[in-house]
Amino acid sequence: MSIDETRITRAILAAALRDWEEISSVDVAIVGAGPSGMAAAYYLSRGGLRTVVFERRLGFGGGIGGGAMFLHKIVVEPPADEVLRDVGARYAEVEGAPGLLVLDAAELMAKLASSALDAGTKIVHGVSVEDVIFRRDPLRVAGVVVNWTASELSGLHVDPLFVSSRAVVDATGHDASVVEVASRKVPELGIELRGERSAYSELSESLVVEGAGEVAPGLYACGMAVARVRGLPRMGPIFGAMLLSGRKVALEIAGRLGAGRTTP
Ligand code: 48F
């Protein structure tokens, strides 16, 4: 078989453009492939909603990969073990610390990503969300403005593309960069960014899950983005609230948009 370079190029172009055409209008656009974004993507796709994840870097997992100070273990507490079992991630109880579960960072990243992909999520790497689309009557966030991360880094003036969606999820972590841009550039949404507070792990683990949800019509937050938006403490290297807040946002969106099998 001869491998002609032009055929390689055309195969990639045709498949990529087909995908981009599909994702130019979706049910849910998730920004960030960290633990909260991947958990949300998994449950949304499992419920039958057309879901895309835009991730500015070239990998999965966000803060999972670095563990705590580069130690390759992740700590989670119940009931987040329900999510671990749903995605097939193996974990162990921590000796002498009842209620804490430990697992490999690589295991969590890989299983979250493969479960979301198997459920039908489309994940696009190297793409940054730089803005939102908004509409009036009724006032709402109606999609995201995307560009290659490479364009952003180059400093060249390259105009973006648009993706319309029925819901946008900010899963960008500590920056809450999507909610931040919406609060600044669509002031009529009335979003107040209260800013993340110092560490208080136990409190933050429950408040982040409680606070996850709709921030403005059409715009949702999960994971550490919730801490910046709602003025909550950080919790450091414990990941239960990331998984549970992602699941909570998915269930809330599925309830609003109408989806089938998202319920855990
Ligand atoms: O930071 P990240 O892991 O967010 P998370 O899901 O989890 C936080 C924990 O990792 C940890 C913690 C709790 O235990 O404190 O930090 O809330 O993942 C966020 C992902 O979003 C990407 C970023 O590269 C990362 O992979 N991201 C951020 N901004 C953008 C983005 C953007 N504007 N466009 C696309 N991707």
UniProtKB/TrEMBL annotation:
Signal peptide: none annotated. Keywords: Iron, Metal-binding, NAD, Thiamine biosynthesis, Transferase. Its EC number is 2.4.2.59. Glycine binds at residue 234. Fe cation binds at residues 159, 174. Its cofactor is Fe(2+). The keyword Signal does not apply. NAD(+) binds at residues 36, 55-56, 63, 129, 157-159, 177, 224. It comes from the Archaea. Pathway: Cofactor biosynthesis; thiamine diphosphate biosynthesis. It catalyses: hydrogen sulfide + glycine + NAD(+) = ADP-5-ethyl-4-methylthiazole-2-carboxylate + nicotinamide + 3 H2O + H(+). Involved in the biosynthesis of the thiazole moiety of thiamine. Catalyzes the conversion of NAD and glycine to adenosine diphosphate 5-(2-hydroxyethyl)-4-methylthiazole-2-carboxylate (ADT), an adenylated thiazole intermediate, using free sulfide as a source of sulfur. Belongs to the THI4 family. This is Thiamine thiazole synthase. The gene is thi4.
